[in-house]
Amino acid sequence: MDKRRGPLRHGMVKEADSRGQIPGTPPSARPCGKRLLVLGGGYVGMYTALHLQHRLKGELAHGAAEIVLITPDPYMTYQPFLPEAAAGSISPAHVVVPLRRVLSKCRIIIGEATAVDHAKRTATVTTLATEEEGTGATELTYDELVIAPGSISRTLPVPGLAAYGIGFKTLEEAIGLRNHVIEQMDIASSTRDPALRDAALTFVFVGGGYAGVEALGELEDMARYTARYYHNIKPADLKWILVEASDRILPEVGEEMGGYAIRELRSRNIDVRLETRLDSCENRIARLSDGSRFPTRTVVWTAGVKPAPLLAATDLPRNSHGRLRCTPRLTVEGTEHAWAAGDAAAVPDITSDDPDALCAPNAQHAVRQAKVLAENLAASLHGKPLKEYAHRNAGSVASLGLHRGVAHVYGRKFKGYPAWLMHRIYHLSRVPTLNRKARILAEWTLSGLFKREIVSLGSLEHPRAEFEQAAGGGTGRNTPKPPSGGGGPRST
C-alpha cells in the first residue's frame, strides 16, 4: 500500500505530472494509475516485468497501473550462450530476447537511467531522442522502483588494457571476438613476418571463471576446426593461454571438477597459468607476473564484474562492494517502495548456516528472485503480506568446448560428455520463450549434420566504412578505425 496515494484500485485517478511524463508520450496519454518503474532489461528486469504484467493484468487494462522499463538495449541477452554464439554454434539473433515482443503490456524506453532520487521518487533518464533534441536528461516520476541495472566488467589499471583488451560480456563483444580470432588467422596466413604471425596466433584469456573458461574452450574448438581450411596453419601453431590470479579455475564446480577442467584444457595444449596476473599488455605484448612475455594481438579480459555505475548515483543504501543492501523480501533495506535483485542486490541467503551469507550474483538466483520480487511487489500494492526469497544452490555446470564439460549438481559430479550434455539441457530449459528454445534446438541439430561456418564478418561492425572511403574520393581519411587489436578487416 502506498501511504501517499492510497491503495491500488481500478479507475484510480491522480493528477498528471508533466515533469514525470514518459518521453515520447502526449500528456493526455499518461495513465492515471501507479507507475512501476523497472531500471534494466536483463534477467531481473525482464522477468520481473513479465511476471508483473501477468499479475497486474486487470490493473494494466483499466489504467490503474503502468509498467515502464528503461533499458539501453531493446533485448535481453542470455549470457550463458555467448560462448556458443562466439563459436558459431548458435545464431547471435537467437541468444537475445526482444523485449517489446515479450513485454507487450509494458512501456519500453530505450535509454539509460543516470541517477535516482528515491526521496523524491524521480529517476534521471537519457534516451536517443534527448540526445538528438539536445534537451538533456529528463526526470521521470514513479511510485514503485525496481532497480536491476546488472553489472559491468571489473577492470584493473593494467597498462595497455584499455587500448588492446577485449571484453566478453555482451553479444557485440562475443561476435566481435569471433570475427577477430578468424581475422588473426587470416593475418597469420598471409604475412611473411614470423613475429607478426606468432603474435596473431597467440590468444591470451585473463580470468578463470565461467566466462573465461567457456569462451576459451569454445573458441579454441572453433579455431582448431577452422585451421584445416588454411594451407599454412596447423592447430599446433595456435597458442592459447589462460591466466588466473587464484590457485584454481571454475571454483563454483568444486576443487575436484576444477582440477579436471585444468587437466582437460592442458591436454589440448592450452597453457593454464594459476596464481598469475596480467601486469601489462602495452605495445601488444602480454607481460605476466611470473615473468613470461607473449607478443599477442588478442587479450580477452574476463576477470570478474562489478555493480553498474547507476547504483552509486542513487540515495539508496549500499554495502562495501557497492551492491544495494536488501532484505530477504527483496526490498531495499530501510526503504519503502524500492526493490532490487540480481547482480545489483546484496540479498541475504537464508538457506545458509552463515548469518552473513549472501546469494551469489548469478543467473540461477536472478531468475528466481525476479519471480518472488514481482509477487511481492504485486502483493504490496494489494495490501497483502510479503514472502521471503529462499533457494538453495542446485549446483553448477560449465562447458569446456564441444562434447566436453564439468558439472557439480545436487552433490553429484559429472565430467566429459555427460556434463556437456547437462550444460546444454539446463540452459536450453532456462532460455526464455518457446520460440528461442525451438530455434536453438534446431541449430544444434543442424550443426551436428553440417560443417561449422568459418567466415569472419568483421566489416559488419563498420558498415559505412567502404562507402565513406568511396565518397571521400578514395583517400580513406574518413574511414572509421576499429579499436586497436579489434574486429574489422582494416585493423591489420
Walk me through this protein's architecture.
The structure is a single chain. By secondary structure, this protein is α/β, with parallel strands linked by helices. It folds into three domains: 18-153 and 306-381, FAD/NAD(P)-binding domain (3-Layer(bba) Sandwich); 161-303, 3-Layer(bba) Sandwich (FAD/NAD(P)-binding domain), CATH 3.50.50.60; 458-486, no CATH class. Helix content is 31%, strand content 21%. The chain contains 14 helices and 24 strands. The chain has helices at 43-55, 57-62, 82-87, 99-102, 128-133, 161-164, 171-190, 194-200, 210-226, 255-267, 363-381, 417-430, 434-449, 465-471; strands spanning 34-39, 65-71, 75-77, 96-98, 107-117, 122-127, 138-141, 144-147, 151-153, 165-167, 202-206, 239-243, 270-273, 278-280, 285-288, 293-295, 298-301, 305-307, 324-325, 338-340, 345-346, 395-399, 405-409, 412-415. Strands 7-6-5-2-1-8-20 form a seven-stranded mixed beta sheet. A hairpin with a 2-residue loop joins strand 23 (405-409) and strand 24. Helix 1 (43-55) packs parallel to helix 11 (363-381) and helix 7 (171-190) packs antiparallel against helix 8. The radius of gyration is 24 Å and the shape is globular. Residues 1-19 and 475-492 have low confidence and may be disordered. Belongs to the NADH dehydrogenase family.
Keywords:
21% strand, 31% helix, globular, single chain, five-stranded parallel β-sheet, alpha/beta, disordered C terminus, 24 strands, FAD/NAD(P)-binding domain, seven-stranded mixed β-sheet, 3 domains, 492 residues
Quick overview:
This protein is an alpha/beta fold and 492 residues long. It has three domains: 18-153 and 306-381, FAD/NAD(P)-binding domain (3-Layer(bba) Sandwich); 161-303, FAD/NAD(P)-binding domain; 458-486, no CATH class.
